[in-house]
Amino acid sequence: DEAPGQAIFYVCKKSLAALQEKLKKGEEISQEAVNELAFPDAIADEEIMVPVDMRGVGQEFDDVEQMVEKLGAKGTAEAFVRAREYFDANKDKEPEEERPKEMT
Asked: Mean of the pLDDT values across residues 14-38?
């Protein structure tokens, strides 16, 4: 269902917003904060999950663990923020009704 080349990953909207805020303020990013974002098993069912396009990261990784290993917690948080911005930019000019949606 994804457009060719899309690399959609879902993250917790609230966790992403919290990480964006911490990055803006130059605060420390913990491994736990990254885990909360990337591993939704630990969050409440009613939390909203938002799509991000991992092509925005600029490098390929097999999984989040590999990202953290190479980029550290802060770098991984920044990568997810870039992935969200990339998704929002809709570089493929995908029609809105066909784009991945937020979900719980």
From this structure: 94
